[in-house]
Amino acid sequence: MGRKKSKKVLIFLITLALTVINDGAVAAEFYPLIPLDSSLVGVEYEYQVADFTPRLGIACDLETKNILSYVSFSYQTAPLVWSLSYGHWTHQYVPGYHYQQGITSSLCYQIESEHSLTGGIFGGTLQRNEEKIRTGLIFLDYKKRLYFDWDREIKLHLITVAGKTRESGNSYYATELELPIIMGSFKIKPWLGYSKQTRLLAPYYDLRNLVRGYQRDEILGNRGFTISFEQQWTLFPYSSLPFLELLNAVVFTDAGGVLKSNQKAEEFELYKSIGAGLALKMGEFEIRLEKVYNRWGEGQILFGGMCIN
After folding, report:
1. Distance CA 248, CA 271 (A)
2. pLDDT tens digit string along 227-269?
3. Which of 8, 51, 166, 183 has a Cα-to-Cα distance from 309 of 20 to 30 A?
4. 87 φ, ψ (degrees, to nearest 5)
5. Spatial separation of the C-alpha atoms in residues 189 and 180, rounded to whole Å
């Protein structure tokens, strides 16, 4: 029954998207997915028809060799954006779970520039490695620029999610708070996270994603704190050659740690790393190549893309 219902939802969304496309002038755009900060390679296709925007996406996970896809449909009437999507795609709200398969509905309220609140619901399965868990959840994503003055800026980003597993009915939740501070070319990024785990579904934080220089699944926990300090400067500010004027040198240091559910606060251990590299800045996106050393002096080369907070 579940598979039949999922197929009906997918057919309905595709039909709705094609109907909207055929009813008006279409402005279509491709967005390639490059395996920088993830292992996905693929493409997303977006249509803009007045206030309606259907989207389709297909990708391959280079690590698991799984084929992922989704279809979504959004409607915008300022300051609100409503969206509905279905598919097997990446997951971003429950920490420690990489993929989701099911249906998501969300509503974004753009309060003002750099100030928004997004809330939504999800029903389906969450996936970590080969583990799949059926769940329903709600999420809130709040962003606000607290201060801005020329080259100085302070932002707040709060994400909270709560849900229940279908098999046991046990509840879980997770909350993350990030406070990026920019002072010219100097950046400070503190982060706090806390999650409640259940026997079947256990949100957790991977130190590798918080402090650069450590290995995946090496140090895990359901509570964490990190802080990052970074300095950038332009290498060729007056160059007329393509991309050279966008190239920055970067030096940074990270510090933080995580605690497991059975550990006390006094057992918190601080992990540190230090590194340097290059960043190619393209609007709100950076492509970075970094060399980082962890607390044991082990070196690691990192290459990936990231959005600028």
Report:
1. 27
2. 999 999 999 888 777 778 889 999 999 999 999 989 998 999 9
3. 51
4. 160, 180
5. 4
All structural domains of the chain? 1-76 (2.20.25), 91-185+197-203 (no CATH), 210-309 (no CATH)
CA distance 84 to 71: 9
For the entire predicted model, the pTM comes to 0.85
Q: Which whole-number Å values give the CA distances from 8 to 5, 14, 89, 90, 201, in the listed order?
A: 5, 10, 18, 21, 27
Q: Measure the CA–CA gap between 305 and 309, rounded to whole angstroms.
A: 13
Is residue 92 helix, strand or coil?
coil
Burial class (CB in 10 A: 0-12, 13-18, 19+), 195: buried
What are the beta bridge partners of residue 30? 45
Element (H, E) at 9: helix 2-22
pLDDT in tens, 135-181: 999 999 999 999 999 889 999 999 999 999 998 889 999 999 999 99
